[in-house]
Amino acid sequence: MNISNYFKKEIRLIDSQLKKYFGVSKSCPKILNESMAYSVFAGGKRLRPILCLAAARVCGGSIKKVLPTACALEMIHTYSLIHDDLPAMDNDDLRRGKPTSHIKYGEGIAILAGDGLLTRAFEIMDPMVVKIVASAAGVSGMIGGQVMDLLMEHNRCPANRGRENVEYIHLNKTAKMIEVSLVSGAVLSGAGKRQIDALAGYGRKIGIAFQISDDILDILGDKKKLGKRGSDADNEKLTYPSVFGIDASARKSSELIQSAKNDLKIFGRPAVTLSEIADFVINREK
Ligand code: GRG
Questions:
Q1: Mean of all residue pLDDT scores within the chain
Q2: Tell me: the pLDDT tens digits for 221-248?
Q3: Residues with C-beta less than 6 Å from any ligand 1 atom
Q4: How far from chain centre, in Å, is Cα 186?
Q5: Considering only CA atoms, which of 125, 22, 143 is closest in space to residue 72?
Q6: Which domain range does residue 40 map to?
Q7: Domains held by the chain: number
Q8: Beta strands in the chain (DSSP E)
Q9: Residues contacting 179, CB < 8 A, separation 6+
Q10: If you take atom 27 of ligand 1, which residue's CA is the nearest one?
Q11: 273 C-alpha to center of ligand 1: Å?
């Protein structure tokens, strides 16, 4: 099966499970349920749940067991995007080709939709991985990275700290959630240390490469395909291209992908899908 058909099949599986979490509930206000579902089903690539399931597949795990955690990772990711788009953060009005949550529902509901998705995620994920996911999403992970991203806006990064700070941002804001998507799939599949370490290394590297390619797409990408306007320049963000230039950034992301693919060697032939996902990370148009 080619990679695009593989993605389509996995997205169908993930979406059919995700839908189960957004049925009508007497205790959850209708507008909250609607706003959470609006962003979750706005057409994301589902990269994190796809990686979680791919790790389970390569480790011989049960998809049924891992699927709720895969959905929880997508909920955390979607919460982060809703909050990232708020006026106090990146102030974006378009995401996944649709008006952002605060444009559609107002700021208060958008903040609460994000909060709702984050807490619901911890309700549905497997208790075995709560700690590692919380750590990747938390203050020494995605939130820490986002804080540094915010602090460094409007060219506030000292010239001699560009490399150190952009590496911190990419690792924490983006790569740790991608890494934990793989590690949680492996842990829930009973993988051994060697397998977990290999998937962690692969995840961290494709995660950094993913954010570098996001930075490049923000400059060069087709905004229609991306479904967002690209606000890095307006916000004078500290990005890979702003520190190293576009060519060196593209070279760095290719090197990371090559090295990530080397980490898969211990799995042999069954890791071919993960290897193709790594290529997708830097060849994608959205
Ligand atoms: C706690 C107030 C508060 C805010 C947290 C942590 C955070 C806000 C925002 C982080 C946003 C973030 C992780 C941005 C960078 C990651 C990135 C490249 C996101 C886009 O991911 P894709 O391309 O999106 O996978 P789709 O739409 O395909 O799911």
A1: 96
A2: 998 899 888 888 988 999 999 999 999 9
A3: 44-45, 47, 77, 80-81, 83-84, 96, 142-143, 146, 173-174, 211, 214
A4: 17
A5: 125
A6: 3-283
A7: 1
A8: 94-95, 98-99
A9: 136, 200, 203, 204, 207
A10: 44
A11: 24
Q: What's the pTM value of the predicted model, to 2 decimals?
A: 0.96
- Which ligand 1 atom sits nearest the alpha carbon of residue 42? 27
User: In a mutational test of the pocket of ligand 1, which residue from 111, 174, 228 has the highest number of ligand atoms less than 8 Å from its CB?
Assistant: 174
Measured from the Cα of 173, ligand 1's closest atom is 13
Q: Give the domain CATH number at 114.
A: 1.10.600.10
Rounded to whole angstroms, what are the CA distances from 131 to 124, 125, 134, 180? 14, 11, 5, 11
d(CA 195, CA 61): 12
CA of 168 to the centre of ligand 1 (A): 15
